[in-house]
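Intended use. Records like the one below are meant for learning the mapping from a protein sequence to its folded structure. Do not use them to infer anything beyond what is encoded.
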Amino acid sequence: MNNIHENTPIIRSAGLKKPIASITENTLRDLAFDNAAQAHIITTTDNGKIILVNNAACKLLGYSKKELLTKSRTDIFDILEKRFINMLKQRTAKGQSIAQVTAIQKNGKAVPCEITSAIFMDEDGIEKAIFTIADRSQNIFEQKKIDTKKEKIVADNIVLAKSVQKKIDAKNEKIVSHNIDLAISAQKRFDVKKEKIVSHNIDLAKSEQKKIDTEKEKIVADNIVLAKSEQKNIDTKKEKIVADNIIIAQARSDARHAENN
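Structure written out for the chain above:
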C-alpha cells in the first residue's frame, strides 16, 4: 500500500476498499456487474443455465446467489409466455432483444418486468446470454393509480354530463310541455271559433230552410186553394150538367108517358 500514490482513486463497494491501481480490469468488470443498480443474469444459451448473477438480481427474485446459480431461466421466467418466446426468437435472429415478460420470484409471485437480452461469446468462444431485468411493478402500480384517477375523472365527468343533460332535458321537456299547452290552447280557440262558425252556419241554414219551407208551404196552400176552387168550378159545372141532364131526362120521360097515354 505504501508504493501507491496518495491521490490514487479508491473504489468502495460492499465493504471493499482497494486502490484502483491494484484492481485488474476483470475485477472492475466484476465489481460493476455485481453492484449495478439493475438486475443482471448471465446464462448459457443452449440450456439457459444461470452461471452468473448480481446483487440486484438476487434482491429482485428473492434468492441468494448460491440458490440462483442452481437455477435456469425456466425457473425465473414464464418461458411459456408468448412474449418470452418471441423475445428468444428475436434474440436468435438479431443477437439482442427487448421484451415485456414475467419474472417468477422465489415465493412464486409473478413480477412484470422489462428485459433486455443479448448474446455474446466468452473468452473460450462459448455462446452466452445476458439478461438485464427492470422491475415494472411500481410503474404498473403508478400507471394503475393514474388510470384509476383518470377513470374517476371520466366517471365524474359522466355524472356531471348526465346531470347537465338531465337539466337540459327537464328544460326541453318544460319547453315542449309549454308548447303543447300553447298548441292545445290555440287549437281550443280555433275549435271554439270553428264551432261558432259551424253553429252560425247551421242557424243560417235552418233559417234559410225555414224560409224555403214557409214559401213552399204557402205555394202548396195556394195550390190547394186554387185546386179546390178549380174543383168547385168543375163540380158546379158538373152539377149543372147533371141537373140539366135530369131535367132533359124528366122531360123525355114525361113526353114518352104522355105519348103512351
